[in-house]
Design goal:
Order of helices and strands: HEEEEEEEEEEHEEEEEEEEH
Shape: rod-shaped
Low-confidence stretches: 1-30
Largest sheet: 4 strands, antiparallel
Keywords: Membrane, Signal, Transmembrane, Transmembrane helix
Radius of gyration: 38 Å
Number of domains: 2
CATH topology of the largest domain: Immunoglobulin-like
Structural class: alpha+beta
Strand content: 35-45%
CATH class of the largest domain: Mainly Beta
Distance between the termini: 145 Å
Length: about 280
């Protein structure tokens, strides 16, 4: 029995084809990297071509034309006119594709990717007839101050010099092509000419490209503050830092009116008292 088993194993090994010893890639994906090929150029916008795919996992792929060598990803590609096609288990397919005009100028390429984005492959595309503008290299993202004001929200308590709150209304505009994400933000506040104190500044979050965003920041006010009150801020986007200052006036009239009224009442009472004594 012991001699029969090795003999059987040897016979199976001899009869098994060499290619069947390879272990398939997980999920049925081919072991070779995916490839894409297009016909030799020149090619023109609007022209139908046959795109050859090889080494792709079974499933659906998205095929799209990109300008600017696809450096910025979807921003450079005609994703709204992409071609979606199935790939069989063999990993190879020939897909008819209508060459759409990319949103930016060439150098162009054809990008193929799965719904998850990986794997993916690109091939240079000698495309003519592209009238889109070239991509201009943008400088570091920056912010502009579109609005700034301070409003005293202390209410009645502020009339008597009680601690209150100043509301800082701030509008930031992003004129660039890229989002500004949570730039550092610092605030200092205090009486004019005095020593300012650090104020907890909120996170600014994202200011989208080409858009504006409004903020309302509470700033605490000291007790019995009379006169000008200043708030200084500094925001540091990747580009030029943005500094600003705003002031408001706080006049706790209650601290002056109440003593004055009390004095008037006191004087009036004294006069009445004197008048009564003289009348006797």
């Amino acid at each position: 029995m012991n001699r029969v088993l090795p003999a059987v194993a040897t016979l199976v090994a001899l009869l098994t084809p060499a290619g069947s010893a390879a272990t398939p890639a997980p999920g049925g994906a081919p072991a070779t990297p995916p490839r894409v090929a297009v016909p030799a150029g020149p090619l023109a916008v609007g022209q139908p071509v046959l795109v050859d795919l090889d080494g792709w996992p079974a499933g659906t792929v998205q095929i799209e034309v990109c300008g600017n060598d696809g450096r910025r990803g979807a921003l450079d590609c005609a994703t709204d006119r992409a071609t979606h096609a199935p790939v069989p288990a063999t990993g190879s397919a020939r897909v008819p594709v209508l060459l759409a005009a990319p949103p930016v100028a060439c150098p162009c390429l054809l990008r193929v990717r799965t719904p998850t984005g990986t794997p993916g492959a690109t091939v240079a595309l000698p495309l003519t007839g592209v009238r889109a503008p070239a991509v201009t290299e943008a400088g570091p993202a920056q912010l502009l101050l579109a609005g700034l004001r301070a409003v005293d929200r202390s209410g009645v308590g502020g009339w008597f010099g009680l601690p209150g709150e100043l509301s800082l209304h701030l509008t930031l505009h992003n004129p660039g092509p890229t989002d500004v994400v949570d730039p550092p933000f610092s605030l200092l506040a205090g009486p004019a000419g005095g020593v300012p104190t650090i104020v907890a500044a909120p996170a600014l979050g994202t200011v989208p490209a080409g858009q504006s965003r409004d903020y309302q920041v509470p700033v605490p006010l000291d007790a019995a503050l009379l006169g000008r009150y200043e708030v200084h801020g500094r925001i540091e986007p990747p580009g030029t830092p943005l500094a600003f200052a705003v002031e408001t006036h706080r006049r706790p009239w209650g601290l002056l009116v109440v003593p004055a009224v009390a004095l008037v009442l006191l004087v009036s009472g004294l006069r009445r008292l004197v008048t009564r004594r003289r009348a006797r």
